[in-house]
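Need the bound structure for adenosine monophosphate, inputs here:
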Amino acid sequence: MLIIRTVAEMQAFSEEMRLNRKKIAVVPTMGFLHDGHASLLRAARNDADVVILTIFVNPTQFAPTEDLSRYPRDFERDCAIAGESGVDVVFAPLDSTEIYPNGFESTIDVGSVAKPFEGAFRPTHFRGVATVVAKLFAITKPHIAYFGQKDYQQTCVIKRLVSDLNIDVKIVVCPTRRESDGLAMSSRNVYLQPIERERAATIWRALCAGKHLIESGELRSREITEAMSRVLAELHECKIDYATPAHAEYLHVPEIFSADEAIVLLIAVRFPSARLIDNEVVFPHK
Ligand code: AMP
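Answer from helper R.:
Posting the output first, comments after.
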């Protein structure tokens, strides 16, 4: 497995692979890998000739008040997991000036899908995500790229990005990997105190309650929200940033959903030690 630290070397490597007609897959991550990341790597390994894992804790997607400096890192362990998952190249810049050199000032704003939910609570987040993903695509030159459903709104933003800017990369969204009690795997779960960790699966139970209601025929947005909120009310110590159904593609929230279109249930909860997000896509009962 090759470890590449510079943009120039990464581009030269991918250019050569393309000249040799190799199919290149990329899995962008911020490192501190868990089985959710590994599932993307396995999917990529299955589909492509060359699998590139990128590890970059992207400063531009963190607000000044967020957890950039304490974001968990373990490069050696990440490389071990990458090796076991069949990765060919780890692209891991040594510092952020490799990606954002002096004078850098272009950014990408994706439209309406980036505005609500995470966009409302983290106003600069998706600009950072869209910009770094576009850059990572230009650096690694993939044919196909893998993202997790765990970050549902992010997948909407990235699909919009590649479509609007004619970026010739196929986007694959892989299912969310969960712990045995339903908590979505996340690098940020390490922040949780033991008692918070125990209670964090409440988020999954709230999603299941919303899902159950929709599958039994409920299409009114307020009723679905209330079903999830009732479960989340058990989390007295937490602030619920949002818990809502939304149109699975455009992310708007009608009063009544159509029975013909998928609904995504979106939740963001602030525990004292960590902010967690999760989601579930539901197909209404017909
Ligand atoms: P991150 O390192 O948190 O930026 O995540 C890198 C990629 O892994 C993103 O596409 C995430 O959506 C995906 N990912 C994170 N957690 C999970 C999970 N539990 N299951 C599947 N994919 C995930």
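Comments: The two ends are 49 Å apart (CA to CA). The first strand starts at residue 2 and ends at 4.
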